[in-house]
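Saturday, quiet lab. Running sequence design on the structure tokens for the scaffold JK sent over.
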């Protein structure tokens, strides 16, 4: 697929290319009220100001809903549903395209460019959603096996249910923060000497603080209590993805996880990236997943052949040393 060309200056290799158009929440020193924006190259397009200055004049479907761009979270925009997310994303792409059919909206409107295109280094990013609850899934065969070896040894690394159902736990939504927010090393209860015959815990600052490079998905549609969403319709209920760091206190986790799983070892902090990549933008990266050697129950079977995303993730560690 040929890269999309833009009249706007987007650095080569930018994560915020014209093919992406991720959504987030920003504020500035001159306008401290958080509002909706998209990232494009090294800039943020302030959608509140863009909408207020007839930026969506050529997109009639969003005009009755433009107030969502003045909200301090993406919840209201997400609740509009994927069809509207799609047309807004495609419209913004067309506004920045080299052959834009609407040059008067932004390309030739230098005054509006100065007002709505804000350098990313001058904006403050906020948590993109107001999060009422979240579930952390134990996804990834290799990850599950490695963690199982850490806690149970190679022979019992994978629990019998792992290949049959989605394994997950509920975390603490109030400790989710936007990336860059400092995380304080927690105190916890764990075994000073796990090999000792008598298991006597201590309470101390955790010694095995770990990071986890994960992807998190935001849900955009609600379902009535007691009425499940079919696996066939699940994707239509997703807004987009962010990167997530599920901070983990491994020494606390190894002591507390039996019988009910992680609790204090996971609830002290979870970091998410500020820019949400729409599910639609990831369509080109769909791929066939690892074959399950177990027969799963019918309600979990997906009809599509490509059910995972081929995405390369990378983490860099910075130390004071």
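Result came back. Writing it out in full:
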């Amino acid at each position: 697929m040929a890269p999309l060309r833009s009249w706007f200056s987007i650095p080569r290799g930018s994560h915020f290319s014209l093919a992406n158009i991720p959504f987030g929440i920003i504020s500035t020193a001159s306008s401290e009220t958080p509002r909706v924006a998209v990232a494009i190259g090294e800039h943020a397009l302030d959608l509140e100001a863009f909408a207020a200055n007839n930026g969506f004049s050529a997109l009639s479907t969003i005009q009755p809903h433009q107030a969502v761009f003045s909200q301090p979270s993406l919840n209201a925009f997400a609740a509009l549903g994927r069809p509207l997310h799609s047309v807004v994303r495609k419209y913004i792409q067309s506004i920045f395209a080299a052959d834009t059919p609407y040059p008067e909206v932004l390309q030739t409107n230098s005054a509006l460019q100065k007002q709505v295109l804000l350098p990313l280094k001058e904006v403050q990013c906020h948590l993109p959603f107001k999060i009422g609850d979240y579930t952390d899934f134990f996804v990834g065969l290799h990850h599950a096996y490695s963690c199982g070896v850490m806690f149970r040894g190679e022979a019992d690394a994978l629990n019998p249910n792992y290949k049959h159902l989605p394994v997950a736990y509920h975390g603490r939504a109030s400790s989710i923060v936007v990336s860059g927010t400092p995380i304080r090393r927690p105190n916890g209860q764990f075994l000073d000497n796990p090999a000792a015959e008598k298991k006597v815990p201590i309470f101390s600052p955790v010694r095995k603080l770990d990071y986890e490079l994960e992807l998190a998905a935001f849900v955009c549609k609600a379902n009535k209590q007691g009425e499940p969403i079919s696996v066939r319709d699940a994707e239509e209920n997703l807004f987009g993805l962010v990167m997530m760091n599920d901070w983990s206190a491994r020494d606390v986790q190894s002591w507390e996880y039996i019988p009910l799983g992680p609790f204090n070892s996971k609830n002290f902090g979870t970091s998410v990236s500020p820019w949400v990549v729409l599910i639609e933008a990831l369509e080109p990266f769909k791929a066939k997943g690892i074959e399950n050697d177990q027969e799963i129950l019918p309600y979990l079977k997906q009809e599509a052949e490509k059910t995972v995303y081929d995405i390369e993730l990378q983490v860099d560690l910075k130390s004071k040393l």
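Notes for JK: Helices lie at 47-52, 75-78, 82-96, 110-116, 141-152, 250-256. The longest strand covers residues 238-246. Ask whether to fix the surface positions before the next round.
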